[in-house]
Amino acid sequence: MNEINNAFRINQTGYAEGLPVYAAVLAKDSVTLKDDNGKTVPMEETAAPKPDEASGDEVALVNLGKLKAGTYTLESVEGKRTLTVSEKPWKAVTNALIKGLYYQRCGCELKPEHAGIYTHPACHTAPATDWEDRSVLRRVTGGWHDAGDYGKYVGPGAVTVGHMLYTWKLFPEGCSDELNIPETGNGMPDILNEARYELEWMLQMQRNDGAFHHKLTKARFAPFIMPQDDKEPEYLMPVSHCATAAACACLALSYRVYKAFDEAFANRMLLSARRAWEWLMKHADDYVPFRNPEGVFTGWYGERTDKDDRFWAACEMYAATGEREFRAEAERLYADGQQLTAFGWADVGGMGALCCLFDLGEKAGEILYDRLKADFLRQSEEALKLSHGSGYGTALAADQYVWGSILPIMSNAMAMIMNALITGRQEMRNAALKQWNYALGMNALDICFVTGFGERRVMHPHHRPSDADGIEEPVPGLISGGPNNRMTFPMTKEKMGNTPPAKYFVEETFSADTNEIAIYWNSPAIFVGAYFCR
Questions:
Q1: With the C-alpha atoms ordered 101, 104, 109, 112, is the resulting torsion angle positive or negative?
Q2: What letters, b where the CB count within 10 A reaches 16 and e where it falls short, cover 65-77?
Q3: C-beta separation of 73 from 81 below 8 A
Q4: DSSP readout, 168-213?
Q5: Contact 456/2 with Cβ under 8 angstroms?
Q6: Which of 498, 479, 505, 501 has its CA nearest to residue 391?
Q7: Contact 102, 194 (CB under 8 A)
Q8: Cα 103 versus chain centre, distance
Q9: Per-residue pLDDT in tens (0 to 9) along the chain, 534 residues
Q10: What does the DSSP assignment read for 462-504?
């Protein structure tokens, strides 16, 4: 990787005409901005350097203004940095984040005409064994590999699809390009084609009584081999409340999206969602957090409660059917208290808010629209405060750099975008833009976290195919989880020592705790990117 630029941190994929151009300045001397003719351009807003707790840097976040298309150079005696401004700078990276999920496909060949050099044969096609009844074998194929490993998990898959479908519903002009995947040209936008690949797998994960198996994995993570070489038995793990509720929500949402394209497929999903809901109602009082069975060491994805998952499910079922029982249950769960600005697999209250605020709207009623909107707007102010308090504009507290810190950062961007859509506040939009810039290079590490993009980019993600395929460049369009000093491996602690949280990052394949990829980290970034690509 190239040497870190000590004077300026920028969005390495460029900036958009018509939007503010932000740069983080670490130079201690005066700074000038020059156009490609060497002419000095006035900067709209300068700022004094201030301490950034998360990184330990003295940094000034400057607004260079809304610049015309062209090439510009930031200069000081300590260094210089070239940046570009264009009409649609982020189409390529947003499309790559969507197609990154294609490269995670399981159970099918990735052919050269679609995958380029990242081709491989079909993988994981053998029947799976039911963990609880080893006499039961089922063929469950397809879906996406969840992260850097080859497991497949219902809850994370459901929230990933949920992000994608709301992206398409809200910002279709930002995410409807053809992506050169096998289904391209079939009359359906490729973002929906890709999401359908996961949905087809999800439908197979439902048990006869309506419950969903929590995950389909091996007993242990595979070594760093290509997916077609991973021959150990796969197991259908026990069912869980959270997986069932998340699948119910996702399928009810999917019914509304896909019925315009394939009514029969949409009806299958609604029927499956109803069966899941019936199981949830029968077992509402016997919630037990999912735990890995003895002898299983793959991703846990356990949650302390399923109230947020059931809230999301109730909202989506009401939107899909208009039936009062779902509205009543959503209101009851909302009254219990919901975090409305969280969009990750562990807390999906924000997904319910998306449904109420942008799908149901005023027909959701006084509780699920008027009151919920007021609560949402109040809660989303916290993201803005975090951004204002950071030297880099990053909407994350110094003590919250967790495993996959890109998720809370992108979740906060989503919340601020939703606030801006409701209120029209440019302050919220601009703070969300700073999170997009963070992901693409305007950060303490001077790194673009999306593979395949940026002059200084992630090259060694914790991702088995990227390590095992013998190709120098990793699989493109995957976003790294980023800095994490909250739950780290001993090897990471030894390397990082007392490094500040925002720099607690090891750009090496072993570092699952800081440099893994995950489908549900790509998907909120897709939401944010599509918003800014409109």
A1: positive
A2: eebeeeebbbbbe
A3: yes
A4: HHH-GGGT-S----TTTTSSS-HHHHHHHHHHHHHHHTB-TTS-BB
A5: yes
A6: 501
A7: yes
A8: 16
A9: 445 767 999 999 999 999 999 999 999 889 999 999 999 999 887 778 999 999 999 999 999 999 999 999 999 999 999 999 999 999 999 999 999 999 999 999 999 999 999 999 999 999 999 999 999 999 999 999 999 999 999 999 999 999 999 999 999 999 999 999 999 999 999 999 999 999 999 999 999 999 999 999 999 999 999 999 999 999 999 999 999 999 999 999 999 999 999 999 999 999 999 999 999 999 999 999 999 999 999 999 999 999 999 999 999 999 999 999 999 999 999 999 999 999 999 999 999 999 999 999 999 999 999 999 999 999 999 999 999 999 999 999 999 999 999 999 999 999 999 999 999 999 999 999 999 999 999 999 999 999 999 999 999 999 999 999 999 999 999 999 999 999 999 999 999 999 999 999 999 999 999 999 999 999 999 999 999 999
A10: B-HHHHHS--SSPPSS-BB-----SS--HHHHHHHTT--GGG-
Per-position b or e across 243-262, b if 16+ CB within 10 A of its CB:
bbbbbbbbbbbbbbbbbeeb
- Let me know: does 435 contact 395? Beta carbons within 8 Å: yes
Amino acid at site 185: G
Among candidates 67, 19, 81, which has minimal Cα distance to 446?
A: 81
Domains by residue range for the chain, with CATH: 1-89 (2.60.40.10), 91-442+515-532 (1.50.10.10)
Question: What are 197's two structure tokens?
Answer: 């690949």
Structure tokens given for 57: 């840097």
Long-range contacts of 170-175, Cβ-Cβ distance < 8 Å, separation of 24 or more: 170/358, 170/421, 170/530, 170/531, 171/527, 171/530, 171/531, 171/533, 171/534, 173/533, 173/534, 174/94, 174/529, 174/530, 174/531, 174/532, 174/533, 174/534, 175/94, 175/98, 175/526, 175/529, 175/530, 175/533
